[in-house]
Amino acid sequence: MTANESSKILIKIFYATQTKTAKYFAQQLHESFTKHSNCECTIMDIVDYETEDFLSELAICIFIISTYNVEGPLDWFYKWLEDTRYDFRVDKQSLSKMRFAVFGLGDSAYGDQFCIQPRNIDKWLGQLGANRLYPLGESDKNSDQEKSFEAWKISLDDVLFDPSYGLNNVSTNPNYDSYSESDDELDSDSNNNNDSDTEMVDVEDMGALAPKLQAARKSKEEEVYKNHNGQPKRILTVQELPVKEPKEMVTPMLRKSLTKQGYKVVGSHSGVKICRWTKSALRGRGSCYKFCFYGIQSHRCLETTPSLACSNKCVFCWRHHTNPVGKEFVWKVDPPEMIFSECLNNHYKMIKQMKGIPGIRADRFQEAFNVRHCALSLVGEPILYPHINEFVKLLHEKHISSFLVCNAQHPSRLRALDKVTQLYVSVDASTKESLKKIDRPLFKDFWERFLECLDILSQKGQRTVYRLTLVKDYNTEEIANYVELVRRGKPDFIEVKGVTYCGYGGASKLTMANVPYHNEVISFVEQLNQNLGETYEIATEHSHSCSILIANTKFKINNKWYTWIDYDKFFELIEKGEHFTSLDYIAPTPSWALFGSPEAGFNPEDQRFYRKSKKNNNSVKNGGC
């Protein structure tokens, strides 16, 4: 080895990520470090590194860690480090050769669980004798993550490469000087003195006692750590407390991500996007299942949300978990008039861009500039928006129908919601355990909130829908429990749809194996319908979407289904301001939409499109599905 090589600073950057955010920051750090000629830096996923090698690692280790409350790539290293820290047989200076720094990515909406994994990793490394080169850095998804990381990166860069800092003279464990192994030793000595007259423990009994002793010690250490590191140096008076202005929900990094996915971000917390069914309908190639079920024209539908934030992180979310999460609306609030106006403007701009697409039908292209329906289901939780009632009123004043979806986690907001054209509640599971597994809610009392929302739905006195998204191996069992939930909420309709696979690979572990076939959806619906009794029947289907609608038999009049909506009648009733029910604005369901029809939910006025393949060169066929 030459003198030049021996003077190089060896750095290894480890990242743990599911949505590639930590990897992105790790790459930024790598790019910054490699600008220094005396640096030799490598970057790797932490799952690709043998954990035992950390015990002899001589390179500087930088950890960029994302926080998750589900299984992920960090689990193996995290568990190994925890076991090493609390195993009484392991030398507490076992990582004394390591020099490290940790940066954590988290979400403040999770409260005391914010950055819990990066914090523990930073703490445990220090307690095992590793030398902390720079204090733990943290960034909040609901704030400017890039700004927080940039500040930490610059300071770390100075520590590593500025000679005035003296890399070899950096103090060990600066964050935890107030909490060290001496605390444990004092407790241990004290306990030993107090128990000197007690009976000695037999060596053969140690195996059974060890886990209990380890758990007790860990609990004690966590309490001491919290007390030492969670205390403010002084208490500020009310006059001294700074007045914080509410932050904008959409950070620069989030805006960039959403824009890349095709969203038009409106204001600071709203969004609009063109649905693929809008494009399909404009070309006469078929409409969304909502047209089949309720008569919503896809090319005249605005898909939007006044709140990009959600209170769940569902495994099947096809927004790739890029939207923020929160238990309540804590951000800057935009006025409903601005949101409504800008959503329409952005929607029409995107429609204009489709003018040159081959196959666009002129009549539907013109109709698209007169929106008649609004699907408040784009992403997030629309009822979180403080002025949701005012926003819905603006829609109705322009004779735009409102289809609002909620996740049954905000009972007070649901109770205060005014009448909409159709109110949806997502019922993604039938038990507390399965709901937690599939929806991954933020609230600890999520099940109680969920049930309360179903009770409220039964009392709303308007057109209501349960939306079930079937995910194989997650929520396709326990039919009897679904029946109980239906009896509780008494919805007018039950939509059952197979999950759509969108190339998950980030925070979700879903694969094509979790996507049910249409015949499997039918089988589930038939079992559910059989258990519901005579109150409900299977009404319509849209096989292309793997979707089926179960309807209350009150919508079957003289042996004919009336699941469609008379929209003009709805607006007439709204303007009168009198009480009305879901039966007061019904319209007959066309025969092609009925369950078991030859068309299977495909409008015969459209042309079914088939992609060209080696086996079939016919791209268009009339009718059918």
From TrEMBL:
Q: Which residues form the Radical SAM core domain?
A: 294-545
Query: Transmembrane residues, as ranges?
Result: none
Keyword Signal part of the UniProt annotation:
no
User: Recorded E.C. number(s)?
Assistant: 4.1.3.44
State the residue spans of region: Disordered.
172-202
Catalyses which reaction? N(1)-methylguanosine(37) in tRNA(Phe) + pyruvate + S-adenosyl-L-methionine = 4-demethylwyosine(37) in tRNA(Phe) + 5'-deoxyadenosine + L-methionine + CO2 + H2O
Name the pathway it acts in.
Answer: tRNA modification; wybutosine-tRNA(Phe) biosynthesis
Keyword list, A-Z:
4Fe-4S, Iron, Iron-sulfur, Lyase, Metal-binding, Nucleotide-binding, S-adenosyl-L-methionine, tRNA processing
- Please list the GO biological process terms of this entry: wybutosine biosynthetic process
GO MF term set: 4 iron, 4 sulfur cluster binding; FMN binding; metal ion binding; tRNA-4-demethylwyosine synthase activity
Q: Per UniProt, what is one Pfam family of this protein? A: Flavodoxin_1
Record keyword Amino-acid biosynthesis present:
no
- Cofactors required: [4Fe-4S] cluster
Which InterPro entries does the entry mention?
Aldolase_TIM, Flavdoxin-like, Flavodoxin/NO_synth, Flavoprotein-like_sf, rSAM, rSAM_sf, tRNA_wybutosine-synth, tRNA_wybutosine-synthase
Q: Which residues form the Flavodoxin-like domain?
A: 11-157
Function comment: Probable component of the wybutosine biosynthesis pathway. Wybutosine is a hyper modified guanosine with a tricyclic base found at the 3'-position adjacent to the anticodon of eukaryotic phenylalanine tRNA. Catalyzes the condensation of N-methylguanine with 2 carbon atoms from pyruvate to form the tricyclic 4-demethylwyosine, an intermediate in wybutosine biosynthesis.
Q: Which family does it belong to?
A: Belongs to the TYW1 family.
Matching PANTHER family, A to Z? S-ADENOSYL-L-METHIONINE-DEPENDENT TRNA 4-DEMETHYLWYOSINE SYNTHASE (PTHR13930), S-ADENOSYL-L-METHIONINE-DEPENDENT TRNA 4-DEMETHYLWYOSINE SYNTHASE TYW1-RELATED (PTHR13930:SF0)
Annotated protein name in UniProt = S-adenosyl-L-methionine-dependent tRNA 4-demethylwyosine synthase
Organism name: Glomus cerebriforme
